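Database export, one record per block. Field names are fixed; values are copied verbatim from the stored entry.
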Amino acid sequence: MSEWSNILRKNPLEWLTNKNNPAVRYHSLIHLLDQAPDHPDVLETRNLINSDHKVTRILSKQNPEGYWESSTEPYNPKYKASYWQVMILGILGLDRSNPMIRRAVEHVFQFQHEEGGFTEYGEEVARRKFHEFKDKQLVRNRKPFLEHQWIKERIHEFQLTCLTGNVCLVLIRLGYASDRRVKKALKWLVEVQNKDGGWLCPYWRAHKNDKHGCFMGTITPLDALTELPHKHRTPEMKKSIQAGAEFLLMHRLFRADHHEFKVINESWLKLGFPQFFYDILRGLSVICKADLANDRRIDEALRILLEKQQADGSWVLESSPIGRMQTNLEQKGKPSKWITLKALRVIKSVLETRGSLELN
């Protein structure tokens, strides 16, 4: 880190490697200090993650069957249900060696569509919704409409690319990259990629006529595909990564590729954690994982990131669903170890690729 930390306002590495947050310390040792996974400090730190109070609080609320909140709805309530907890635990650094993680993952796999993607809910919830909608005369009945047909279409419609990308990403982190079900999900993501290189939740009726990719639908599949080690990427995946990255790059990560390159969404300039959705830091991270850190079209986003560093060397948590998760991970508006870690990983990648941090 001594080779590139002189461009920082202050070096926050000591703060990041403090033992009071074993998850951040673990990722800092691996990704910033390049310590080997079998280094004694790394092994010791990783073992401590399971007993961290944030982790134990989340796991204490898990049902013995492996789910959180509802056994039939892994998506809702948002940020508290099973999908979200698995995502968070994967971010924190747990893996499939933990039996509670294995139970959670097997529960989540129940909601994988036969085509490969993950859905918001399964048949039981879809059937309940059918009768609710039918009672309210919201099910169109120009022709005889069979219940099983409606349920099948409803589940298919809520097989989402953004959700599937996030789930695949965490499953890879948890150690399921070689699982046939993960491979099937990734294959589906490649197959439904838009012609413009982006992704769009393809079965939402509201989007059936849309042609332009969605940033939220794009960032999560791209994050998952680039999380795979190079040796596991098929030729189709490699092409998909290139096309998806180009979709982000042609927009400079946050600007419209038309309308005079105006900012698409001001909220994307706010740095968030956990990274469930899209912001420029997640965009930068994925571009770096795609081995495209030398592309100058990221420079404006990178400059914004650098300007956000505080005098003490940290970056602030600007966006987070505080109060809506099983436990808050950090304080909004305060220095964030997670954002700082992710920012430094991006800076490190750019410097290693370019040899300097001179921006256009």
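Remark 1: The first strand starts at residue 315 and ends at 316.
Remark 2: The CA atoms of residues 133 and 171 lie 34 Å apart.
End of record.
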